[in-house]
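ok trying this again, last paste got cut off
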Amino acid sequence: METGEVVRSEGAPWGKRARKEFPQRPARPLSDEELQELQAGQEVLA
């Protein structure tokens, strides 16, 4: 890394503004439909 180089995350190149564009929300359990979709994908990979 060069001296004076500004380090930025590739995940949020806009910095603090990204918080407004991608607000966080509490976690929630998967719906039955989402759970079935994931289980179907697991069976295909096995």
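PB: full thing came through this time. The mean pLDDT is 76.
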